Structures are given as structure tokens and as C-alpha cells.
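[agent] plan:
  1. take the single chain provided in the ticket
  2. run structure prediction with default settings
  3. attach C-alpha cells to the ticket
  4. add a short note for the reviewer (M.T.)
[agent] executing step 1
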Amino acid sequence: MAHYQKTKHPGIYKSKTTIQISFNLANGDRRREVKKLSPTAENLAWASSFRGAIVIAIEKGTFVYAEYFPKSIYLKRKSNKTRRVFIKDVIWKDEVQNPNDKLRKVTLKKYRPGMRIIEEYMGDILISELTRADIKFFAKKMRSEKGVSTKTISNYLLTLRKVVTWGFDRNLITIDPFQNLVIEKTLEEEEAEALNEVDPFEFEEVERIVAVATGQLKNMVQFGFWTGLRLCELFALGWDNVDFEKKVIHVNIDVVEGTYGLTKTRQARTVRLNGPAIEALREQRQHTYSKPPIRIELGKRVRDVRIIFYDDRFDRPFTYTQELLKATWPNLLKTAKVRLRPAKHMRHTYASMSLSTGENEKWVADQLGHTTVEMIRKHYGKWLDGAAERVGRKGGDRLDELIATREETPPEPPERIH
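[agent] step 2 finished; step 3 output follows
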């Protein structure tokens, strides 16, 4: 057994070949752990700093033994006790649901109903004993007792997945119960999904919709059709993110249920502007270009943004999608005599028209903010048949040609909508 001597660093001891770190757990138990490091002045100073981090973590209540000493003999001896952790014991912990502190408050708020449900139905299950059969049984009960959809069940299970990840990180679980797990959709759900598949507007329909709108609504709808932005991105776009000279916009924030944050993929992107999109922005300048900026918080950063598109009815930016969808959008399509489809199909329209003119799928994916082309192939496969690889041409050229060939303008309807 090695003989350890005190050093000038509190709680740090040394032998000829190793360093011992001594500290007290929150319950008062003293622990001594050994690091196989030569007791040089540099290594002793590191050990002192390492011990300091442990002491602070213990004081804050965030200390996890396995993170600091994953190969500890003490940890192995305590493993049987440690494994007796129930789902209900950890599901509400911030370190479980938001381990990297990256989720927005609005996202965490959406998790809460699922956390309550998981706690009620699965809280008394030991994390170490959770099985795929438990999860399937839970899904079955959700359908039979609460009549919820497969999508809702999947949302509930997001919080359980985080518990499983937490358990893996602490060696409480060795087999992933979610591996190869599939929650089958009901026949009714499959039929409803088929009805709600990508259903873009025809070019003539786009023209009619834009023609019946006026003011800021007209500009926003025209811009939405010809850029493919998500509604939450469209509502949060600022004038400082527009480069008229290069004919691009920089998309980096969105607004979801009144809360501004980074975009869905958490990555900024540059979107090329075509003629109708630029025209919409130029028309919109008279409405909001001189408006004072609004101050938004992005994590620890604060940013002043001059929002481009305002709700004419209240002279303020849109912050909830329902502000557009509840009445304005259906009325707009009714006046234009266009079959009702969700406003998100403006984005689908941009994608399908781009692909059908032969734009490269990677370019379209970049425009839409998808990290890979898989989403493009999944949702817009039938428009890829006529798409050709771009050779010696800039992305967007083919779409520009389509726009240029549309010389006839439909007659302006007698009614217009604000």
C-alpha cells in the first residue's frame, strides 16, 4: 500500500508515483481517490484545482461521482444502490431535461405535460429495469385511456428518452430500451397524414392570392411564397439581415409562441432572393423600415431587431402563427377563390417550384435550411423527376427563368383583403 504525505495543497496527498485527492461528500462521508500522476509541482497544482471543482459541485448539489472518477472502486461497490433510481426521481431535474442549457423556455414548457404523464404512468419503474415492453405498454394505454395520437405519444416519450440518456451517462442502463422501437400509427392517422401531405399551390394560385391581398399582408405573403421561409422565420426577419446589393437575406432567428430564439436547426443560413421577393421588400420599406427596433434576448445575448413584417391590424410584429392562420389566411384564400391549404404550404410551393424547374436539390435544401437533402427527397420526391444537376449555373437561375416567362398577369379581382 502506498504511503501518502501531505502537500501544501489542502486535501491533496502524494506518494512516489501517485496523487491522492481527499474530499467530503454532501452526507459527510470522506472519500479518497487516487490519480496515477507523478507528484510534480504542476500535477499537484492541477489536482488542487480538480479538487476545488469537486468541492464546488458538491456544494451546488450537481456533483456526479462517475463524471469525475468513472473507474472508481468505490463507485463499483455502490453501483447496486445507485441503480435503484426511479424515473420519478429524476424526470423533473434540469440536468435531465436540459443538460446543455440549450433549450428555449417555450420548448421546455411544451415538455411539461409529457413529464407529468410519464411520471404518472411510469414514475415507479426503476431506470435500470425499463424495457421496450414497458414503453409499448405505455403507448397502448395512452391510446386506450386518453385517446391521444401517435405524435403526442412520441412527444411524451421525448422526456423519457432524456431520462434514458441520463441513465446511460451514469452507467445505470446498459441496453437502450428505445433501440429499434417503433410506435405504429393507426390506420386513421395514416389516412389523415396522406390528406395533409405536401400540397403546393399552383403558379396561377400564387398570383391570385398575392393579387387580392393589400398592404403589408400582400408583401409578406409574396415574400413567403418566393423565399420558402418558415412562418416563424418570416415573422422574425429584420431589416439588418437584408443585403439588397448581394440580393440575399441572412436567416438566424425565429419567433415561436411569442418567444424569439435561434432557428429550428440552430444554424444561420443565407437565402438568395429572386425578383418577386426583392419587389416585396422594396414595397415593404415604406411601412416598417423606419420603425424603432425591438429588443430580444437570445440566451445571454441581447439584440435590437428592426422587424420587417408587421400585423396591419395592430401595428406590431407577428409573434404567434395563429395571428395569421386563424382568420386572415383562410379569408385571403377564400377571396382569391383558392382551395384552402395551411400557410406552411407557401414554403412547400417554393420548394416544389424550384425543384420542378431543375434546381439542384442541395441548393434547395440550403435555401430551406435543411442540413441534408434527405428531407427534400422525402417530402418533394415527385418534383425531383424533372430536376437536373446544375452545371455552370448559379442556384436560383432556373427559378428566375420560370418567373421571367410569366408575362401574363391575371386580372385583378374586385375584392381585396387586408
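[agent] step 4 note for reviewer: The radius of gyration is 29 Å.
[agent] ticket updated
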